[in-house]
Design a protein that fits this description.
The structure holds two protein chains of two kinds. Helix content of chain A is 73%, strand content 2%. By secondary structure, chain A is mainly alpha-helical. Chain A has one domain. In chain A, strand 1 and strand 2 form a beta hairpin. In chain A, helix 1 runs antiparallel to helix 10, helix 3 packs across helix 8 and helix 9 packs parallel to helix 11. In chain B, strand 7 (169-173), helix 8 and strand 8 form a beta-alpha-beta unit. In chain B, the strands form two sheets. A six-stranded mixed sheet of chain B has the order 6-7-8-3-9-10, sandwiched between helices. A four-stranded antiparallel sheet of chain B has the order 2-1-4-5, with helices on one face. The chains are: A mainly alpha, B alpha/beta.
Amino acid sequence: MDWLFFIESSLAGLCTGAIYALVALGFVIIYKATKVINFAIGEIMMISAYFFLTFAGIFAWPLWLALPAAVVSGGLLGGLTEKTIIRPMLGESPISVIMVTIGLSNILVGTAQIIWGGGPQVLPGFLPRQPIFLGEIYVSSKIAFSALIAVAMLICYLLYFRFSRGGVALRATASDQAASFSMGISVPRVFNFAWIFGCMATALAGILFSASGGLSPHSGGMALAILVVVIFGGLDSILGALVGGLIIGWLETIVGAFWGGEYKMLAIFTLLTLILVIKPYGLFGTKEIERL
Amino acid sequence: METILEINNIEVVYNQAVQVLRGLSLSVPQGGVVALLGSNGAGKSTTLKSVSGLLDLEDGEVIGGQINFKGRSVKLDSPDKLVHRGLFHVMEGRHVFEDLTVEENLIASTYACRGKRNKSEAAGKKRFDLVYEYFPRLKERSKGLAGYLSGGEQQMLALGRALVAQPDLLMLDEPSLGLAPLLVEEIFRIIVRINREQGTSILLVEQNAAIALSIADYGYILEHGKVVIDGTAEELMANEDVREFYLGASGKDGEQRSYREIKHYKRRKRWLS
């Protein structure tokens, strides 16, 4: 076995995993606060990448403006989604709400095709290209920088939820809605914020993925791996999203590098099945929660 | 005396089918302590939830009558707005946020201080010291998860959150639930203190009629969704039916009651309503 290659692949895998973790975090925030399973997550990634394409490519805004603008637009899209199509579904059965998010994902794909065309596009390169060497180990700088940005965002989120007053309100709402209302916390507003924050994380991850993988209206399909991550880690666990993202990203890359790309899905779904047999609610999912 | 809460002839229905309150009326005077007593299922908790607006979350609806808090109908405001106007509902079973620390529970409660009555959120935080002075035990455990507190400590935390919120009207739903007698006394001493020192009006729902009436000025007894007896605490404690059915005194001659007489019990209760 080629250990150097193994270490290089592992690093690349962990870097991909960090971005998975970011999307998974976005998913978990929305699920924890509102109990909505968001199947449109891949399409929100895709649309946000198109936002970035528009801002950086067509409007030719500088990177420091285009990237935050695209992330914020993705968040606002999430907030708008919550206000207009999720809130009227409040109190309906979870399956109906899931169907609504699946419908939304189709609408987003169609919208992207109408506005930006159906063909694949390339995002303007904003990540450095020269390879990085750690001793003898080669790391693609594109992936490494994507991972750094993702990790920075993850840390900001974790600190915010842990220490800020808004984070307390979010966790309080996740834990007991009636009690949150009785503390004067506006639960509908927390729902809205959860969607905005969740979709901002999702948006950033979508841009980072598309920066190395290209973009088309159908690239939302990459979210299939994200669903594996969140089910693996536990739908309602932030820790689960982080650990799950890293493990799934690593496993996928290693299997792809050693056996070939066609075995990636086989590997991660086998692992998912095993985990579900041992821990039906995912690695860190504690409570009795939605079964998908 | 000025009234802070006025409930007028309300009817409440759950799931558009089950009627729980049938024309209930009561009022709470400014600065007073009012007890709402009754057995299981009489509609005590439902009354509080109709006031605080939490009824919507349980598919309940007020289909008749009015509830006015500080002279304004509660229907006009969402539950969180009502809290900002000075109403605070401590729910039955305490409802502390179990996976938040004790201090974070108090921080969550500073949302109640938002934009009302010239009290800022920062002012809410300053009141943490007051909470810890009322409940020294919470200070020791301020960094620990609320879910690991004992039942009594959770009730203290629930009251502590109310102290942070500085409400004008505090509604307490069975603060004695599941607590040892000594702890119940401690909790009720604190409730009296909140009423005296903070000038908070209190609407107290209890099954433990004896201790509730000992701190209340006025009491209402609820059966099947309406008030059957009301009066000052002294009047109620002197009332023979109240003594027999709610304070656990035995019959006139102090004789033991047996289950054979349960029919008589039921008949007299019906007569009461």
